[in-house]
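The passage that follows is intended for readers who have already worked through the single-chain material. We present the inputs for a multi-component assembly, then the predicted structure in tokenized form, and finally a short commentary. You are encouraged to pause after the input and sketch how you expect the pieces to fit together before reading on.
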Amino acid sequence: MAKPDSLQGSLDLLVLKILSRRPRLHGYAIMSAIQERSGDVLRAEEGSLYPALHRMEEAGWIRARWITKDTGRRARIYELTAAGRKQLAAEESRWQAVAAGVNRVLRTV
Amino acid sequence: MPLWSRIANVLRGDRLSREIDEELQSHIGEAIGHGRDPAEARRAFGSALRHGEESRDIRLAVWLDSLRADAVFGWRQLMKRKTTSAAAILSLALAIGACTAAFRLVDALLLRPLPVAHSERLHAVAFQGLGANGKLQTYDSCSYPMYRAMRAAVRQQAELIAVSYADRCDLTYGSDQEMEKAYRQFVSGGMFGSFGLQPAAGRLLTENDDLRPGAHPVVVLSHDYWTRRFARDPQAVGRKLRMGDRLYEIVGVAGDRFTGTETGTVTDLFVPMMMKNPVTLASAWNFWLRTLVQLQPGVAAEAVQERLRATFRAIQEERAKTFTVSPKQLEVFFKEKLVVEPAPAGRSNLQRDYRRSLAALGIVVALVLLIACANVANLMTAQAAARGREMALRIAIGAGRWRLVQLVLVESAWLALLATAIGACFAWWSAPFIVGMINPPDNPARLALPADWRVLGFALALALGVTLLFGLAPALRVSGVKPASAMKGGEDPHSRRRLIHALVALQIAFCFVVHFAAGLFVATFDRLSNQPTGFSAERILNLEAVAPRPQPPEFWNQVAEHLRAVPGVETVALIGWPLMSGESWVGDISVGGAPESEVYSDFLRVSPGWMEAMRIPITGGRDFRAGDTYPTVAIVNRAFAKQYFHGGNPLGESFEKVDAGGRVRFQIVGLVPDARSRDDMRLPIRPTAYVPFPAIDAQGTLQPIGRGTFVVRTSGRNPLALASILRREVPRARSGFRVDNIRTQQELNRQHTVRERLLAMLSLFFAVVALLLAGIGLYGVLDYSVLQRRREIGIRMAVGAQALDIARRVTADVFSMVLMGAIAGLALGMAAMRYVEVLLFQVKATDVAVLAVPSLTILAAAVLAAVPAVIRAVRIDPAAMLRAD
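Having made your guess, compare it with the prediction:
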């Protein structure tokens, strides 16, 4: 059983954001980046990450291709598409709005 | 786009699975590389299988993927049993193909709307009245003055269009020697306009081409004729052609798909009404055209019908003043009723003659299809039963019921689709083949048989319907499998057998109906073609000749004399037109100055020696002599003597032929037995008076003759071998003569039974197919039941059952079903035959022979089908059987 998702539905946003900053990452690198950048607060489970990546790929937000690494191992790397960039902007502003709203509630109550 | 890529992913599912797997492995490798514990890294993924499935489901359309998987699985199932599958597919293909072909014919002849604007508003005027035999009859011919009166009456509500019957006429683009044939239709000038048709070249006819009799020598070609005769040469417009003694100019070509309003005949030339011969045009008595009604938008057909009825009544009253008939005849005359019927598919005699035949054939092939479906359904049920354990396992590991239904239905769909594909090829070939058999070869029926979305849609609907028909019951049964009982192998076997047995009964019932119908049609054809004609048609060739400028009778005799000298010719005689060609000349007969009889007599002009050439013996008096003329002498047949002389000896008596011109007196010089001249084979031979070929007018001068037929009896067996020689010899004998048409007498005789022959042949063919299918089905069912009961049979034999007893047990159930099916079929057949009674001749649905033949055939087939299963049952070795379990 997968652990409860600590990302509260923001996985797509994080993946898109990370790919916009650092294109051509494979799945493990994306997972590590989320952990690292959030200062170990957020953790993406493998069980959620890959289905999310594949879903976004089918939606046309990200694009994948295979590369062969120096170690000789093949890896599947992802990068953002134009549609993904648009989606990122939309998700980002939605997140900002939600966060601002939540903060306002926390402040006033 | 995403949906598309998901559908595309279905097609490369294996690669997709591999990629997903590889990516996960790569991730784990990466994690280990970064120093994570390998076991922990793997555990973090949970079930790799589940992740793989999840990712897979995201990346492709699940429903399609399952469909694909089922299709692949179904295909493998079919390939596993190649012979059974092939047999099922071929029998279905034959039935589906036949159904599609029948649909193509029915659609092309009766359903498909004419390619004109608003064909749904197109209607036709017809008249219903009591025929001579007291039955309701419908005819649809009008005279031109009638059309004019009706058109004037409904000018505000509808556009009335007059179209003549399409006739085959002679025309030439050069000299008389280069005469050719074409189908001509006289049409009212407004037709093209109200049909909204566009020209492919030049212009079409308009109201202005239809103003004064004889003043508009123009024609419009059909696109089909333009293509055949001129290879779509635009220069054809403006060319001149000669028909009769008039020159016509081609002014245009009609649009691509319009081939006239007479479905079954492709019109070549459209000619303005006003160019019909002026006498016919003015005659209120000459019924030679159809009236079509193109309603204005929003006008109801009933309203137009009301108005036209009033007009028709007025016309009838006017007409009644001009003739004297008995009050009873007058009453019948006034009972005639005008009706306006929808005619979106055009109007033709072919439609009228073949409507019922095609419907009967359609039902026969539909029954054959149902028989084939029952076979496949039995096959699928037996197979589903054999796969009971597999299905139970599927359910046990979590397959949904719907998923199993889909699995079995997809397999059925494979069968249906393959069968439809093969059947489509069969229909492609067979529909034109049947159209080709409808009319005699020199005058073929032509139907546009496009393979378009209508036909495609029908075939696909058929495939779908058939799939559900034979696939649904086994599919639902499979989905209802209870895993626990199936795994134990103990499901109730009777329920399955009940379905199979019911299907057997159904098959036999349908098979019986098909055989019954085939028997009736074959008997009808047999009786009709063996109807005595009273003359010998063997080795007779009819040379229908014309003299464009009428020639005196002695010149005709000279040509006949010349032909007698041609090697291979036995005798030559002259007649007005060939026997059985459909032409006729009737006259009222008056004996001893009495009022004319109510029964007409046929008249035929023949030369001396004609009786002998046709092998009609002269039973009393003499043949015509060289100097005999019309009028004064006549030879009459027995029916004539019976009708007008009460069976007494008419020799030496005289009668009068009464017509508009007065009374003409004839003396009877000879008596001959009855011989058929034109009649429908179904009617008795009519009273006939033969009169001399040469005619004299009131002043006693011989009349020149414009057309006649040389009847040639050849010494060779095949009269057609002489056809081309004789065609050349006629103009050589005397210039001014030309052979217009050559037909053997046998061909002319045969054309009266073309429809019956077609029906008999096709229904017989399908009866054989139905019997074959039902036989195979029965064999399969019996074989399956022996297989199922082999344990029981083994035990019975072990305790001493006799072979006969085993045979009885194995076949008893099925044979009681056969019996029930036969009885049901008999009832069904008797009930259905009322609708085809008009197609039958001298044979009734209650004739013993008609009932016995199908019963015995089907019984014999059933016994034959049972033999292998019985042998198999009797040969079961109890010891081996019991040891096996």
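Commentary: The interface with chain B takes residues 1-2, 26-29, 32, 45-47, 50-51, 54-55, 57-60, 71, 73-76 of chain A (CB under 8 Å). Chain A has one domain: 11-108. How closely did your sketch match?
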